[in-house]
Amino acid sequence: PSQAQTDRDAVHQAALDYIDALYLADPARVERSVHPQLTKRGFWKEPTATAYGQQTTMTYEQLVKLASTWNAKKTQDTSIKTIDVYEVLDQTASAKVTASWGIDYLQLAKYDGRWKIINILWQAHPSR
Question: Which of 57, 85, 94, 108 counts the most CB atoms within 10 A of its CB?
Answer without folding.
Answer: 108
